[in-house]
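User: Some background: our group keeps a shared notebook of sequences we're curious about, and every so often someone picks one and asks for a predicted structure to add to the entry. Today it's my turn. The entry only has the sequence so far, pasted here. Could you supply the structure so I can complete it?
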Amino acid sequence: MNRSDVTDLIIEAKVRHDITWAQVAERIGRSKEWTTAACLGQMAFDEAGARAVTEIFGLPPEAQAWLREVPYKGTLPTAVPTDPLIYRFYELVSVYGTTFKALIHEEFGDGIMSAIDFRMDLRREPDPNGDRVRIEMSGKFLPYKSY
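Assistant: Of course. Here's the predicted structure to add to the notebook entry:
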């Protein structure tokens, strides 16, 4: 068994038992965004979280160790995403990346937005012309240091 196998077991159980990511998050006491990332192999659970996820999805006991293992983050099957939804985020960065960079540097100075000290909230935004996806991201600004 490896982390990828555990992810596959989680997805299979989620579908089979009609479990939502929000339900899992509520049970472990974390946001649905972080919980989903962790269940999909992008974050490491603490011991209590790994135990809860193992129970929720009916995973074998050896899955707990893999759920606590620090993952290789940012893994996608191809360099340029081929999944249409994920590709739109790639497209956003391709089109607006220089704008994000220019505006962040103008507002904060030379540095980056952290993806480590980071929060995200994703929700449905009702709209008479068709519901919209609202994603709010908040990352700590980390200035480059002079030395």
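Suggested note for the entry: The longest strand covers residues 111-125. The chain has two domains: 3-68, 84-143.
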